[in-house]
Amino acid sequence: MITYLKGFSKKKDTFMSSVAAADGGARVLWTIPLSRRDFSETSERVAAALAVAKRQPKGAMGRFFKRLLLRLQYNGSRRYFMRHPETVALCWNGVTGSRRVFMAGAADAGVPTLYAELAPFSDRMQLDHTGVNALGSLPRDPRFYTAWAAGVAERQGEGWRALGENLTSRASRRADVRQENGAALAGDKFLFVPLQVPNDSQITLFSGWIGSVENMIALLAKVAPALPEGWHIRIKEHPSAKTSLSEALSHAVETSGLRIVVDNDTDTFEQVRASQTVLTINSSVGLQAFFYDKPVITLGEAFFALPGLVHPVEGSDALNDVMAHVESLGFDPMLRAAFMNYLDVVHFPKVSKNADGGLTIDETAAKTCIHAARAAIRH
Questions:
Q1: Is the four-CA dihedral 197, 203, 207, 213 of positive or negative sign?
Q2: By the 8 A CB rule, do 27 and 3 touch?
Q3: What InterPro entries does the database record attribute to this sequence (predicted)?
Q4: Which of the four CATH numbers 2.40.30, 3.40.50, 2.40.50, 3.30.450 does domain 144-342 have?
Q5: Residue pair 297/321 in contact by the 8 Å Cβ criterion
Q6: What value does the mean pLDDT of the chain take?
Q7: DSSP letter (8 states) at residue 347
Q8: Under 8 Å CB-to-CB from 309, ≥6 apart: which residues?
């Protein structure tokens, strides 16, 4: 039986319910259990969750009460799962704040865990026993994927491109960031940088050495002059970001010697298509750029940040060097085919959309993920 923490949205809850149905049913928790009695790991788990909470408390009093809540939730979750060792803990995202301590309590109680999240392709989801995005269970050795594909024509072919057939840009929530058929970009030589939501867990958890979106913008302004003659960096803000980065971007344009252009109007994937290279911290747009056969530069942690698939960059000096040699960047098409076919066939389970807007996972895929979660605990 699956125990999941209610997601309070139709997509989340119908998806998790369908996962549970593949395992005989669900216990649904509307709130995280609470307990005052600490474990030896409580302080460490609470500190880790507080550090990556999306809503950071303000002031000493705010931090006190936030820490207290996380402490009660970790203790309560762990005791709940100690009483129900037969279950599998399922949670949406589960890597920040309260949901992090919920899943940490389950893991410390010895219960199998499953983390759910949107996948970067339509009609697919993430369901992984170790975490989502960069915390997932995908192997980080390129040789794994080429070995998996070796000798099997379908695994080396172009079947993976069907994942991108319905690829559309994210609808904008901001009047100043649009998805229009805009500027004539053909012939321009530019590196496209789709910005991410600054406080998203992809940034707070996995930005690596670059630290933040703001730091990246400032660094790009410094390295832009290293680009070959006639090249520029083209930046677009994220359509869901609540806070505009216009001030930082204006400063970057000036300090780059006008080698940076901000284009918040033109459709994101039009800019990907017209670009020579895509640069990102770890945005899914970097992965989706594979469908356009673009070289990709990554600055942060990402499950696709593998040499050959992309160009992982560690440090400002390395980024400056990449800028200077951007014209020679490429990628390994055979590795990309193997990797993307693995995502298609194995890693991202298919879902169907219900008439009411809910999601249902493929039952066989759900059972495979649940089996992997239980097997991970046994080993």
A1: positive
A2: yes
A3: Capsule_polysaccharide_synth, TagF_C
A4: 3.40.50
A5: no
A6: 95
A7: I
A8: 142, 290, 296, 331, 332, 335, 336, 339
Give which of 111, 95, 112 is closest to 48, Cα–Cα. Answer: 95
Q: Which of 95-104, 163-172, 362-371 has the lowest mean pLDDT?
A: 163-172
Phi then psi for residue 200, to 5 deg, are -70, 150
Tokens of 92: 């949406």
Residue for token pair 């099997």: 152
- pLDDT more than 90, % of the chain: 89
Q: Is the pLDDT of residue 182 over 70?
A: no
pLDDT at 130: 96
For the chain, the domains span: 2-119+348-377, 144-342
What token pair was written down for 203?
Answer: 């940034």
Residue with tokens 């083209």: 234
Tokens at residue 279, please? Answer: 């640069």
Residues 113, 218 contacting (CB under 8 angstroms) = no
Residue 7 contacts residue 16 (beta carbons within 8 Å)? yes
Average pLDDT estimate for 283-300: 97
Say if pTM beats, i.e. exceeds, 0.90.
Answer: yes
- Distance set, CA 322 to CA 112, 214, 260, 281 (Å): 42, 20, 16, 15
Considering only CA atoms, give the Rg of the chain: 22
DSSP run (H or E) holding 306: none
pLDDT at 183 over 70: no
* The pair of three-digit structure tokens given for residue 300, joined into one six-digit string: 């942060």
- With a CB cutoff of 8 Å and minimum separation 6, the contacts of 150 are none
The two three-digit tokens of residue 161, written as one number = 């491109």
Kindly tell me if the per-residue pLDDT of 184 is higher than 80: no
Indicate the DSSP class of residue 350.
Answer: B
* CA–CA dist 133, 56 (Å, integer): 22
**Tens digit of pLDDT for each residue in 309-357?**
999 999 999 999 999 999 999 999 999 999 999 999 999 999 999 988 8
Among residues 242, 258, 239, the alpha carbon closest in space to that of 250 is found at 258
Rounded Cα gap, residues 200 and 377, in angstroms: 29
Phi, then psi, of 175 in degrees rounded to 5: -70, -25
